């Protein structure tokens, strides 16, 4: 973290001409929209090299202090024997090497659960993004009243505590006491009995409670596009579709990027919905996902070492997915 | 509602009116869809409120009708009758409010740094921000617990504010990045040429411009803080007077004898403030303050 | 090149020192003083309708404070569902820890293992009232021969049945487990919209009596004090087969019943969807809120032979003293007050909690006929889960529900599923 060190005169000069970030790689040529609204290299401004760190300081302080340390401990605990007896009973901790990982990887169920988690999370991410984006666009095409109605409904879904939302959905789809089966004429079909139908039900609830975030942020993104940019496009004679494709979408990309990455992270770690809706992982564990598995195997019985090992595995997996995703974007000319 | 504005077209120049006419059926279809989707999305919420109002025996009954002949406020009475309920409510407001404001300010600064400056470790830093979210929170609570204990924050509202601030920040920074990025550089140049200081540009020009993004991230941090159970359970141990609302909801989730009416009533009470909060800020989101650019 | 190899080495060395010096926090440290004044902190569970409980406890506290000058008792009510985190917090940060806690009796072994509960064997032995504590309740505070608290109340399950349905179909109240199954099938046949006996693949406490009634055990204690699983034994398997045989279209279809837990069973019965259910004394309110109010009665769940009662699981809560308490003598005194006969009597009147003292319980049954079948069940002898921390892991890992669900869903036979469960249990016991 010594990037700050070589700065000569610490204080950020107000107007001395310098090449700050502008020497950075120019964004994709031929991608067109870049130049028009200034994502490209603009005229240089003075930028003290300390300024960004100054702006970052509060965030780094909070994140470094509150998250870096626990994550470091997580790695440490995963190679130790560390249960509640060690935490509170004063029993000595002992170094286990990779034993916790070996235990995890040798469990056949772990691999089943991992595959199910990846597939289920992928479905949830795609479903959430598709619904969220479609409705965000829809919001821009309607007048105030329907817009407010949809927004409030979505906000309500988002704001409902996950455990309550899950409970209500199970009630609605209950074979004996739920209205949905009656309306759909499904008789006493049990949604939670089959593996696929149980996952499908949870999928619906997950999309229900997570599309609002995508919708609201993407909508905010569309709203934040300066009017003159759109006007300029219109004056240039660009069609509706073209404006959308070459002006709006590129400006939304950073927002889509973050909702995608975040959705991947959240949906991969899904817990409450599965736990509540399938009764802790479904009939004979058929609907287990990694986080619920971790809870049942480790956290519920205070086996923190094994739990931390699972956590580290999840961390590496998600980090890998994120990096691959960012790399793919960069190859397509998208910069971070 | 949907039929409004039919006659308005007459006054506008011909070219535009033709366009409008062509668009209208589409808009009607769009508005119809929006309302229909809103109804579907709201139905589980309706069911929640309805279950809160039904007498205990009707919540899980073989006749699941979407109404009740004997509405009762008993469940709400059980919620409000809990020891210290008002206190929990205030605690929740205080924690969520602090987290929202702090995370908006801190994230805005950080987002500006990573977007409008280039420096080493910029990308790495952005990715590192996310790392803590990639592990199960249960795994982090133990080390966080000791951290809170060692800084003496345990049992105080600070022990909820700090972790939630830390967990809302990464998303907020990433999110605001997109909004800061969308503000044209030309604007900054113009401002600086006009003699504005960077600080002035930051707070008086950039900040209002990214407001829609701030609204979106604020709603996010509000909701995730407001609805948190795990930290509320783990970090407020002996000082129950510092508990937050989810603890009042938890009482009704008894494994052997859950009180569904109480669950639904408490959840309704918890969901309402979020909607109120949203209605208060949503005008900012809708108007987007995009107008500031025009001047 | 040299730098390159040096860096990882340095990192390793650093990791080594950190492992030694900066290992994850622990918070050992045994008890210290035994102060005779100051504040006693108490955690009790916050029930849904907590008012009456608070009033009883307030009475106990007032009289305790009057008898002990200079002592203040600070009672906090915590949601049952937050107990795991709160207790862990209390173990990890002694300064936040209470002196006296109420805890679920299945948690006893885990809390003892974690070094949280104080051994009160001596005080318990000297306590005159302790002689009337019923044996299973005493088992539920005992780990490895030592006593770690006083039983506060007991919860037990019996057979609820629909008097109107039984009358209309002219079915006799069953007196053996076989008759329960016959009656269940008969009801299902005549009333296709109803389950005969509501059963649940996740309803472990409802299924256990079937295992015990057939002479089976969950686990047996070996001479060295460790446990070994017994669900793979022939007797246990017969019981498992008897219970899982009730899943099917002729009683409770697996598609709906395999996922059910105890509460879902009770809800089905309360809504008039079941002819019988195994449910607890604590489920009375839920049933009375439903549509079957006035149309049901309760009898002990019968055993395999006529006149016998299937051993039930004795759940309930205990009151214990934390090891970290600096007011041990006072805390034990308060524990006795809170779990004493007088308080238990008042708690029964206020909350319906069944007393753990046999004599107090009999008086309660006289006052309130509803609890009679439950008291009968308790008097016939009850069973408890293995008193070892491994049980928490087995419970959290849903070992037994998985077994029942596999068999109910016809994914596995009784033998294979039970042997697998036994293997998993032994793994947990071994840790």
Explain this structure to me?
Chain A: Belongs to the binding-protein-dependent transport system permease family. The complex is a heterotrimer of chains A (336), B (295) and C (431). Chain A is mostly helical and 336 residues long. Chain A has a domain of 186 residues: MetI-like (MetI-like fold, Orthogonal Bundle). Chain A contains 14 helices and 2 strands, in the order H-H-E-H-E-H-H-H-H-H-H-H-H-H-H-H. In chain A, helix 6 crosses helix 9, helix 9 crosses helix 11 and helix 10 packs antiparallel against helix 11. With 295 residues, chain B is an all-alpha fold. Chain B folds into 2 domains: 66 residues, no CATH class; 212 residues, MetI-like (MetI-like fold), CATH 1.10.3720. Helices cover 72% and strands 0% of the residues of chain B. Chain C has 431 residues and is α/β, with parallel strands linked by helices. In chain C, the strands form 5 sheets. Chain C has a 5-stranded mixed β-sheet with strand order 2-1-3-14-6. In chain C, helix 2 runs antiparallel to helix 15, helix 10 crosses helix 19 and helix 19 runs antiparallel to helix 20. Chain C starts with a helix and ends with a helix. At the B-C interface, helix 6 and helix 11 of B face strand 2, helix 3, helix 12 and helix 13 of C.
């Amino acid at each position: 973290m010594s990037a700050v060190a070589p700065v000569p005169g610490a204080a950020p000069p107000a107007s001395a001409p310098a090449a700050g970030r502008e020497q950075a790689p120019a964004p994709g040529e031929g991608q067109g929209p870049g130049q028009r609204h200034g994502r490209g290299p603009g005229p240089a401004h003075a930028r003290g090299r300390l300024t960004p760190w100054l702006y970052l300081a509060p965030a780094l302080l909070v994140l470094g202090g509150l998250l870096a340390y626990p994550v470091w401990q997580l790695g440490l605990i995963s190679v130790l024997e560390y249960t509640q007896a060690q935490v509170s009973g004063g029993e000595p901790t002992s170094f286990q090497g990779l034993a916790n990982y070996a235990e995890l990887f040798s469990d056949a169920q772990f691999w089943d659960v991992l595959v199910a988690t990846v597939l289920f999370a992928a479905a949830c991410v795609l479903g959430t993004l598709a619904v969220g984006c479609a409705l965000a666009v829809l919001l821009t095409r309607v007048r105030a009243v329907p817009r407010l109605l949809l927004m409030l409904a979505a906000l309500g879904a988002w704001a409902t505590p996950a455990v309550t939302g899950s409970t209500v959905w199970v009630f609605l789809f209950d074979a004996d006491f739920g209205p949905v089966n009656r309306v759909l004429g499904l008789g006493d079909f049990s949604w939670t009995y089959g593996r696929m139908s149980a996952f499908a039900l949870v999928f619906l609830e997950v999309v229900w409670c997570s599309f609002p975030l995508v919708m609201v942020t993407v909508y905010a993104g569309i709203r934040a596009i300066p009017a003159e940019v759109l006007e300029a496009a219109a004056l240039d004679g660009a069609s509706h579709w073209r404006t959308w494709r070459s002006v709006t979408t590129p400006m939304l990309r950073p927002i889509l990027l973050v909702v995608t990455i975040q959705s991947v992270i959240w949906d991969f770690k899904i817990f409450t919905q599965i736990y509540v809706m399938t009764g802790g992982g479904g009939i004979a564990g058929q609907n287990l996902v990694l986080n619920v598995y971790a809870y049942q195997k480790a956290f519920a019985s205070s086996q923190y070492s094994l739990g931390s090992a699972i956590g580290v595995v999840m961390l590496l997996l998600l980090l890998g997915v994120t990096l691959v995703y960012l790399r793919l974007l960069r190859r397509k000319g998208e910069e971070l | 509602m949907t039929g409004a504005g039919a006659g308005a077209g007459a006054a506008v120049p011909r070219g535009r009116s033709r366009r409008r006419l062509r668009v209208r059926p589409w808009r009607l279809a769009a508005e119809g869809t929006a309302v229909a989707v809103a109804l579907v999305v709201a139905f589980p919420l309706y069911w929640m409120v309805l279950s809160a109002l039904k007498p205990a025996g009707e919540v899980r009954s073989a006749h699941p009708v979407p109404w009740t002949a004997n509405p009762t406020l008993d469940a709400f009475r059980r919620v409000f009758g809990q020891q210290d309920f008002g206190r929990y409510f205030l605690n929740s407001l205080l924690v969520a409010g602090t987290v929202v404001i702090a995370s908006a300010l801190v994230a805005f600064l950080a987002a500006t740094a990573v977007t409008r400056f280039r420096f080493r470790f910029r990308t790495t830093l952005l990715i590192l921000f996310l790392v803590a979210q990639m592990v199960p929170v249960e795994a982090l609570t133990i080390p966080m617990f000791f951290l809170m204990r060692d800084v003496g924050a345990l049992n105080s509202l600070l022990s909820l504010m700090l972790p939630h601030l830390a967990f809302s920040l990464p998303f907020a920074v990433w999110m605001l990045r997109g909004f800061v990025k969308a503000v044209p550089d030309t604007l900054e140049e113009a401002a600086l040429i006009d003699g504005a200081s960077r600080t002035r540009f930051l707070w008086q020009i950039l900040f209002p411009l990214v407001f829609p993004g701030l609204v979106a991230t604020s709603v996010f941090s509000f909701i995730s803080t407001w609805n948190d159970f795990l930290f509320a359970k783990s970090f407020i141990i002996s000082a129950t007077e510092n508990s937050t609302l989810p603890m009042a909801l938890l009482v009704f989730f008894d494994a052997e004898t859950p009180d569904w009416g109480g669950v639904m009533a408490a959840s309704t009470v918890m969901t309402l403030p979020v909607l109120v909060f949203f209605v208060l800020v949503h005008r900012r989101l809708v108007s987007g303050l995009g107008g500031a650019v025009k001047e | 090149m040299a730098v390159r190899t040096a860096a990882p080495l340095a990192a390793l060395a650093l990791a080594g020192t950190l492992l030694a010096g900066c290992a994850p926090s622990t918070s050992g440290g045994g008890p210290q003083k035994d102060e005779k004044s100051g504040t006693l902190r108490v955690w009790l569970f916050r029930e849904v309708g907590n008012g009456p409980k608070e009033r009883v406890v307030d009475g106990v506290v007032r009289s305790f404070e009057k008898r002990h000058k200079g002592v203040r008792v600070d009672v906090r009510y915590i949601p049952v569902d937050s107990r795991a985190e709160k207790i862990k917090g209390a173990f990890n940060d002694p300064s936040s820890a209470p002196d006296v806690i109420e805890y679920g009796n299945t948690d006893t072994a885990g809390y003892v293992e974690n070094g949280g509960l104080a051994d009160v064997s001596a005080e318990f032995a000297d306590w005159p009232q302790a002689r009337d504590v019923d044996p299973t309740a005493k088992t539920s505070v005992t780990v490895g021969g030592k006593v770690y608290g006083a039983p506060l109340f007991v919860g037990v399950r019996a057979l609820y049945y629909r008097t109107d349905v039984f009358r209309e179909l002219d079915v006799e109240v069953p007196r053996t487990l076989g008759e329960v199954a016959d009656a269940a099938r008969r009801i299902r046949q005549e009333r296709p919209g109803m389950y005969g006996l509501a059963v649940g693949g996740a309803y472990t406490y409802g299924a256990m009596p079937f295992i015990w009634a057939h002479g089976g055990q969950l686990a047996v204690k070996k001479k060295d004090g460790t446990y070994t699983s017994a669900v793979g034994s022939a007797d246990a398997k017969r019981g498992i087969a008897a219970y899982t045989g009730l899943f099917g279209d002729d009683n409770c279809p697996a598609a709906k019943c395999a996922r059910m837990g105890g509460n879902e069973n009770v809800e089905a019965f309360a809504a008039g969807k079941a002819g019988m259910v195994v449910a607890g004394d604590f489920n009375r309110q839920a049933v009375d809120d439903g549509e079957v109010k006035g149309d049901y009665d309760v009898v002990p769940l019968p055993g395999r032979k006529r006149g016998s009662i299937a051993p039930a699981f004795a759940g309930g809560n205990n009151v214990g003293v934390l090891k970290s308490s600096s007011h041990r003598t006072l805390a034990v005194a308060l524990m006795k007050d809170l779990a004493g006969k007088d308080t238990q009597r008042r708690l029964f009147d206020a909350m319906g909690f069944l007393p753990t003292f046999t004599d107090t319980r009999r008086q309660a049954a006289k006052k309130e006929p509803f609890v009679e079948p439950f008291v009968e069940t308790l008097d016939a002898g009850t069973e408890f889960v293995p008193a070892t921390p491994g049980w928490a892991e087995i419970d959290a890992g849903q070992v037994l529900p998985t077994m029942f669900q596999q068999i109910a869903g016809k994914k596995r036979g009784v033998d294979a599923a039970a042997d697998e469960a036994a293997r998993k249990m032994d793994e947990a016991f071994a840790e």
